[in-house]
Design brief:
Strand order of the largest sheet of chain A: 1-8-6-3
Low-confidence stretches of chain B: none
Helix content of chain A: under 10%
Shape of chain B: globular
Number of strands of chain A: 8
Mean pLDDT of chain A: 93
Strand content of chain B: 25-35%
Distance between the termini of chain A: 6 Å
CATH topology of chain A: OB fold (Dihydrolipoamide Acetyltransferase, E2P)
CATH topology of the largest domain in chain B: D-amino Acid Aminotransferase, Chain A, domain 1
Oligomer: heterodimer
Structural class of chain A: mainly beta
Number of helices of chain A: 0
Largest sheet of chain B: 8 strands, antiparallel
Number of helices of chain B: 15
CATH superfamily of the largest domain in chain B: ATP-grasp fold, B domain
CATH superfamily of chain A: RNA polymerase II/Efflux pump adaptor protein, barrel-sandwich hybrid domain
CATH class of chain A: Mainly Beta
CATH class of the largest domain in chain B: Alpha Beta
Order of helices and strands of chain A: EEEEEEEE
Strand order of the largest sheet of chain B: 13-12-9-10-11-14-21-19
Shape of chain A: elongated
Chain lengths: 73, 457
């Protein structure tokens, strides 16, 4: 069991959050969708596990490389 | 004559329209969101009004705020640019209802052309060819399906009548595959949409996107030649040129006449573009859609004709442009436009917002034209489209235009974010591009050859 940081690869705005803390997710499942320059870009779970924390809310601006969620595998 | 015009847009097209206003002695009013308070378009305009937060939905798409800004500054007309509210018939109507001049076609033209089926019917009645297809078919009646299939010809696509976005679409290259494809599409459509009806459409394997610029004066319209916009990635155009290369002259004139016929059939007013699919193998062309606004790529047409399409829009809207005759419009040489985007070729072209710490563009010398809404130190935010600048090159022929475009891109220096500059140069240097073998598949077919040099650069 380890806590894994989920980072965003792009700078953008949080458009929709799809999972809350406590949710079980499988590898590659989108946790949230970001919006940047008219594109919708999902942030996916890099491994299967349980969402520990969602660190952003809808409408927030996130920068490339920042941690937006944590999951425990 | 219009005295003062509000530009309901941002970025390079807002700057472009403000420049045209200045040339004609028309006052200009810019609008801006929080994200654009320091943008060049705001400083370039005579006056400006803040219209809300960064998100377009709360600013550039706010009809009431824009109308209020126009009233506040006493603007008598509104130019919508492209994107945002430019093809919103209700906005056009609201501008007219507010007693102002809408710099664009009549709301009814926008509405008619915005509805795909409607536009297709208008094209058919104006005698413009459309992609051959069947109406809705009952998939259990194989006799009718087969008959329609042989009328349309192979290869063809089987599509779910209730579908969209390519769901349930299958390609059929010969009769032997037809029945199986119908069965599979039918059952998938049944479960996905609760309706198993299908239709058939001709499949254009190797297509080019060719469009004709038109200018309508109501009863009469003229064409302002054609453009090729086949080089696209993710349905975004990246390189456009005028005239469209390598099209037989009889096909080209039929295409131009078809565009004029469509514009005249709806008594079109002002600048518009009729888009076609050009089948590289059969040399047939089919109506795709009509854009009822100025296009991003209008400069290539201006470079070969010497016309100022935006100034023409403003003059026509103000009742100051006499109807041009077709023979008065002539073209010289060849023009190419490249769209510089803030995107990262190493990460599958993901958006790359950031600050333009270095921003050096080629000089606007003879044959080179640069359109941008940004300056050094400016920020490309995630809120709007990723286009940083358009670079346009004109030459005596295509080869010369390509050469000077490559030179212009090499003289462009951007730091602080990633761009597609090296990718654009790789496209322009690619043998298939230089042999005029462009199609909408170009980027997909050659992606490895195009991205590898872009990465190395």
């Amino acid at each position: 069991m380890a806590i894994i940081d989920i980072k965003t690869e792009i700078t953008g705005n949080v458009w929709k959050i799809l999972h809350q803390a406590g949710s079980t997710v499988t590898e590659d499942e989108p946790l949230m969708i970001l919006e940047s320059m008219k594109m919708e870009i999902p942030v996916v779970a890099v491994e299967s596990g349980v969402v520990q924390e969602i660190l952003v809310k809808e409408g927030d601006t996130v920068t490339e490389g920042s941690v937006v969620a944590r999951i425990e595998d | 004559m219009l005295k003062k015009v509000l530009i309901a847009n941002r970025g390079e097209i807002a700057c472009r329209v403000i420049r045209a206003c200045r040339k004609l002695g028309i006052g200009s009013v810019a609008v801006y969101s929080d994200a654009d308070a320091d943008s060049p378009h705001v400083r370039m305009a005579d006056e400006s009004v803040h219209i809300g937060p960064a998100r377009s939905a709360e600013s550039y798409l706010q009809v009431e705020k824009i109308l209020a800004a126009a009233r506040q500054k006493g603007a008598c007309g509104i130019h919508p640019g492209y994107g945002f509210l430019s093809e919103n018939a209700s906005f056009a109507q609201a501008v007219i209802d507010a007693g102002m001049t809408w710099v664009g076609p009549e709301p009814q033209s926008i509405r008619n052309m915005g509805h795909k089926q409607n536009a297709r019917e208008l094209a058919v009645s104006a005698g413009v060819p459309v992609v051959p297809g069947s109406g809705r078919l009952d998939s259990s009646d194989m006799a009718s399906v087969t008959q329609e299939a042989s009328r349309i010809g192979y290869p063809l696509l089987v599509k779910a009548a209730a579908g969209g976005g390519g769901i349930g679409m299958r390609q059929v290259t010969e009769f032997a595959q037809l029945e199986a494809a119908i069965g599979a599409t039918q059952s998938q459509a049944e479960s996905a949409f609760g309706n198993g009806d299908i239709f058939l459409e001709k499949y254009v394997a190797k297509a080019r996107h060719v469009e004709v610029q038109v200018f309508g004066f109501g009863e009469k319209a003229i064409h302002v030649f054609d453009r090729d916009c086949s080089l696209q990635r993710r349905f975004q155009k990246i390189i456009e040129e005028a005239p469209a290369p390598d099209i037989p002259s009889d096909v080209r004139s039929r295409m131009q006449r078809a565009a004029v016929a469509l514009a005249e059939s709806v008594q079109y007013q002002g600048a518009g573009t009729v888009e076609f699919i050009f089948d590289v193998d059969t040399r047939d062309f089919y109506f795709l859609e009509m854009n009822t606004r100025i296009q991003v790529e209008h400069p290539v047409t201006e470079m070969i004709t010497g016309l100022d399409l935006v100034a023409m829009q403003l003059l026509y809207a103000g009742g100051m442009l006499k109807a041009l005759q077709q023979h008065e419009v002539v073209q010289h040489g060849h023009a190419i436009e490249c769209r510089l985007y803030a995107e990262n070729p190493d990460k599958n072209f993901m958006p790359s917002p950031g600050t333009l710490t270095t921003f050096e563009l080629p000089d606007s010398e003879t044959g080179i034209r640069v359109e941008t809404g940004y300056e050094q130190g400016g920020v490309i935010t995630p809120f709007y489209d990723p286009m940083i600048a358009k670079i346009v090159a004109h030459g005596a022929d295509r080869e010369e235009a390509v050469r000077s475009m490559i030179a212009a891109l090499n003289n462009t220096r951007i730091q602080g974010l990633r761009t597609n500059k090296a990718f654009l140069i790789a496209c322009l240097r690619h043998p298939a591009f230089n042999m005029q073998q462009v199609s909408t598949r170009f980027v997909g077919d050659h992606i490895n050859e195009l991205v590898a040099p872009a990465k190395a650069a």
